[in-house]
Amino acid sequence: xxxxIFWKDDCVGTAEVIRQGLYLELxxxxxxxxxxxxxxxxxxxxxxxxxxxxxxxxxxxxxLTHLAAKRIPAGDMEFWIDGSxxxxxxxxxxxxxxxxxxxxxxxxPAEPEMTPEPEAQAPVFYPVEENKPFPAVERLDSARLxxxxxxxxxxxxx
Length: 158
Known about the structure:
Blueprint: E1 2-7, E2 10-20, E3 23-30, E4 38-44, E5 47-57, E6 60-68, E7 77-81, E8 124-127, E9 143-148, E10 151-156
Parallel strand pairs: 1-7
Antiparallel strand pairs: 1-2, 2-3, 3-6, 4-5, 4-7, 5-6, 8-10, 9-10
């Protein structure tokens, strides 16, 4: 199946996605200005994946890569160069106005409600194991190398 590739709201090429067993093969061809390095990103809803750097091929840019099909969420695929995809605005919800509680004695002041403060999420530790795929590759931009209980791994702030 072919998909358009966008860069700054312009269609600059196509990405051909071919199912090959457990993998998807991506064949990319794009016409981009200049001789700069460009990265290709795959978006499915809010999920995104860096597919790699496009390389100069016969007057344009191209990329051939394979992805495990099970690691790509279901949904419509979009391909964007250099993360130039416009930010998707979330629809605003109208603020809810709480109903005032009916009080039998209106002269008594209402007691303030105690709301628990949100708990800060602890960082998640992922051990690095030889010959096993790393489960959180798409979140490595906020990762730090760490050691926990004698194991070397990656600590990611959630």
